[in-house]
Specification:
Elements lengths: L9 H39 L4 E6 L1 H30 L7 H31 L3 E6 L2 E2 L2 H11 L9 H57 L1
Antiparallel strand pairs: 1-2, 2-3
Helix pairs in contact: 1-2, 1-5, 2-3, 2-5, 3-5
Length: 220
């Protein structure tokens, strides 16, 4: 029968992986929510514009980095789901240090990727705005007119004033925190498993020698 003590740091691994799993879902949901609401705001502005008006709204900086954040979050979700399934259903089959180290390395890789993307996204969120251009029959409309329309519609091009973008700038940091925590715990578990494996070969011959000595003593 399986006991949690048979698997190095089983409880800590489950706890940190579960938190990383939960926050990866939340981060992914925040990214999807931002895409949906951004498209709704764009449609609202374009629908309000007079017929024949060409409106271009450029949010590529936050859109691209936000898409990467969502993609990395879903990968972390898949990895942590797999690791949790293995811990619950085949725990003793994955106690080798190399396997646990590989698990931690994968999480660490995506944690670094997530961190780099979050830094870029946070910079864009704090300092950039959407670039809105509009023209009628090829003649560009003045910025004052565009800002007036935005104010009338209750939308803003300033990223840091948009609530759904703020969620993407905040929530994935918790995903990063718990992903790093899970990776660290996996590395610690791998180190402990390696020490256990290293101790087993020394115990085997020693026991054989003791048993041989006992047999010889009995014969004498």
């Amino acid at each position: 029968m399986f006991r949690s003590n048979d698997v190095p740091l089983w409880t800590a691994r489950v706890a940190t992986l579960a938190m990383a799993w939960a926050w990866s879902i939340i981060s992914f949901a925040a990214g999807i929510n931002a895409v949906v609401k951004s498209n709704q705001d764009k449609a609202k502005i374009k629908d309000f514009a007079p017929r024949g008006t060409q409106v271009d709204i450029n949010v590529n900086d936050v859109f691209r980095t936000g898409a990467i954040i969502s993609a990395v979050s879903i990968v972390i979700f898949v990895l942590t789901s797999l690791y949790l399934i293995l811990l619950f259903f085949r725990p003793t089959s994955f106690t080798r240090s190399r396997i646990v180290t590989a698990q931690g390395s994968l999480l660490a890789f995506f944690a670094v990727w997530l961190f780099a993307t979050l830094v870029a996204y946070t910079h864009f969120f704090r300092t950039h705005s959407a670039i809105v251009n509009a023209s009628i029959n090829g003649l560009p409309l003045p910025d004052t007119l565009i800002r007036g329309v935005e104010k009338e519609l209750g939308v803003t091009p300033v990223y840091k004033n948009i609530a759904y973008l703020r969620l993407v700038a905040i929530l994935p940091w918790f995903n990063l925190l718990f992903t790093i925590s899970a990776a660290v715990v996996l590395f610690m578990a791998a180190s402990r498993a390696e020490r256990v494996q290293a101790a087993r070969p020394t115990e085997g011959p020693a026991n054989d020698i003791d048993r041989t000595s006992e047999t010889m003593d009995e014969k004498i």
